[in-house]
Amino acid sequence: MFKPSFPLALTAVLLAGCQSATIDPDSPPKLTQAQEKEQAVQRGVYEKLISSVLAREGDLANTQGRDGSFNLMLTLDDKNRIIGCGTQPNKKVDARVYPYNRKLALDLRSICWTAVFPELPSSLIDPKSKTARVVAPILVYPLVGLSPETRARRDAALQDKAQNDFLFKQLLAPMPIDSIGVATLMMMTDSTGQVRECAASLDPHAMRPSEFRHDDGLLAGLVQRCKQLDLSAMPGFVPNTQGMSSAFYRVEYTPWKAGLKPAQSQSCSTTGSQASTQGC
C-alpha cells in the first residue's frame, strides 16, 4: 500500500536574486513577496491533489504487489500535457525501510501516461522553457497483513483497472484524441461475449473539466468500434451462456494516454544525496 502523503519537488520554482548586474531581457521578472506566497499556496494545493492521484493509480498499477521506493519524474508542457516521464532512486528515505526497487519503478512508470493529473498552476511553469518538472517520491508499503476483505476489494479494483485498460486499448487508443474526458459505455453482449448493441457518451473529467471537448467524430468512432468488440478476451469477463447480458463501463481518456509519448521518456538515476529535479 502507498504511504498516504509525501513532498513533491517542482523545478519550475522561480529563483530570486541575480547572478550579475547584466539585465537579461528574456529572464522572468522577480516575484514580489505576495506572489511568492501565492505560489507557495498553489504548490501546496497541487501537491495534495497529485498525491491522492498517485496513491490511487500507483496501487492499481502495482499488480505484482511489490514494495519499496523511487522517484517518479513528470515533465509537463505549458498546456499541462505530459511530455516526459522517468524514474530515479529516492535518496532521501531510509533505505532499510523503503529500499529502491527498480522493478517497482518500471511497473509503476506507466501511470505517467495512464493517470489524469490535476492541472498545474501556470505560475509553476517555467516561462522560458514553457515546461515544468515534477518529482514525486513514491513509497510503497509491503502488501502483507491485509485482511481478507481488504485484499478482496483490492483484487476487484485491479480487475476493474485491467478491464478499463483493455477497453481503452481496443476502442479509444487507435483514434486521435485531443481532449480529456470520460467515455461511458453501455453494451449488450451475446452468450459468446460479442457486443450486439452499444451506446456511448463523452463527459468532462472531474480533475480537468475545462479541457473537455465534445467530439462528434470521436463519439461516432467509439460507438462503431464498440459494436464490433468481442469481450471474451477481456480480463475477468464472464459471458451469460443463457443469452444476452448488459455491461456498463467508464473509461478515462487523454491525448498522452492515447500514445502521444515523446522519444525522450526514460529512466533516470542520481548519484547525489538529494533527488535531482533538473533533467535526466
What does this structure look like?
It comes from Pseudomonas fragi. Keywords: Signal. This is Lipoprotein. The radius of gyration is 21 Å and the shape is globular. A four-stranded antiparallel β-sheet has the order 1-4-2-3. It has a three-stranded antiparallel β-sheet with strand order 6-5-7, with helices on one face. The two termini are 28 Å apart. The chain has five helices and seven strands; from the N terminus they run βαββααβαββαβ. The protein folds into two domains: 116 residues, Fusion Protein Consisting Of Minor Coat Protein, Glycine Rich Linker, Tola, And A His Tag, Chain: A, Domain 2, CATH 3.30.1150; 94 residues. The protein is an alpha+beta fold.
Backbone CA Rg: 21 Å
Helical coverage, percent range: 25-40%
Q: Any guess at the CATH architecture of the largest domain?
A: 2-Layer Sandwich
Outline type: globular
Number of helices: 5
Regarding quaternary structure, what we see is single chain
Organism: Pseudomonas fragi
Keywords: Signal
Protein name: Lipoprotein
List the helices and strands and how they pair.
Layout: E1 9-10, H1 33-61, E2 68-77, E3 82-88, H2 102-108, H3 111-114, E4 131-140, H4 148-172, E5 181-189, E6 195-203, H5 216-227, E7 245-253
Antiparallel strand pairs: 1-4, 2-3, 2-4, 5-6, 5-7
